[in-house]
Design brief:
Blueprint: E1 6-15, E2 18-28, E3 33-37, H1 44-51, E4 59-64, H2 69-74, E5 78-81, H3 95-100, H4 115-127, H5 143-157, E6 161-165, H6 173-188, E7 192-196, H7 203-206, E8 209-214, E9 216-222, H8 223-226, H9 229-236
Parallel strand pairs: 3-7, 3-8, 5-6, 6-7
Antiparallel strand pairs: 1-2, 1-4, 8-9
Helix pairs in contact: 4-5, 5-6
């Protein structure tokens, strides 16, 4: 692969005596949606945090567009939407305020929002179909709407790589359809999207290729091949799709 968006070589991450990732290697192509599949505890969230430079690797190397992950994050080249946001949902923060946070890296030291920043926020809210909720307090949104709001924050940042951790968990069908449609459109516009999900039924319509993770990268191939029962059994030990013998 020539000039991958993300290149990882022999990455290991440990929390004390617990090995979260072991010698994981992969290359993510530009302008693609790539699924990340694995059971709870397989290292998916750790992989995201390592790519963001939020956890320190025990060994190995990560390059984001050829750069150190921390530098790429400071430049705003990469955005991370975690499975759940650790915020005070009662805090008087509007949806528009949350999305505007994605523009902070472009505001300079004064942190004053320009007309361009406000325009980016309006566009991002429109893309996730939340324009009418811009002034609503963030805690008043449904689970699916909250996911869309934080996705809008990443879009407003204009990052070229999006890391989405379980974006379909606890969302309504409308939000799921909106998020899938938007992810595919972003990839068509040149954004690389790595998305972890337990929704293996939806994955084929979302991602052309997927990664099977169980602390190590067990497989990186087309989504169709990764979801074959004998391959899923490597990570899950059972036929999670119920399509026959997984042994």
């Amino acid at each position: 692969m020539i000039n991958p968006a993300i290149s990882i070589r022999d990455l290991s991450v440990s929390y004390g005596e617990v090995d979260a990732l072991i010698d994981a290697s992969l290359d993510l192509p530009e302008s693609k949606v790539v699924g990340l599949v694995g059971m709870n505890g397989s290292g998916k969230s750790t992989l995201f945090k390592a790519i963001m430079g939020m956890v320190k690797a025990t060994s190995g190397e990560i390059r984001v567009f050829g750069e150190d992950p921390v530098l790429a994050r400071r430049k705003g080249s990469i955005a991370y939407v975690p499975q759940s946001e650790e915020i005070d949902w009662s805090f008087p923060l509007s949806v528009g305020d949350v999305v505007l946070m994605g523009r902070f890296g472009k505001m300079g030291p004064t942190r004053r929002a320009s007309a361009q920043d406000h325009a980016a926020v309006e566009e991002a809210l429109a893309r996730v179909e939340l324009s009418e909720y811009s002034n609503r307090q963030i805690g008043q949104l449904s689970g699916g709407q909250r996911k869309r709001a934080f996705l809008a924050r990443a879009i407003a940042q204009e990052a070229k790589i999006l890391l989405l951790d379980e974006p379909f968990a606890g969302v309504d069908k409308k939000s799921e359809v909106t998020i899938i449609r938007l992810i595919k459109k972003l990839a068509n516009q040149g954004v690389t999207v790595l998305v972890s999900t337990h929704d293996l039924i939806t994955l084929p319509q979302l991602a052309d290729e997927s990664i099977l993770l169980m602390r190590r990268v067990l497989m990186h191939d087309t989504t169709q091949k990764v979801l074959q029962p004998n391959n899923l059994a490597l990570a899950f030990g059972i036929d999670v799709l119920g399509r026959g013998d997984a042994t």
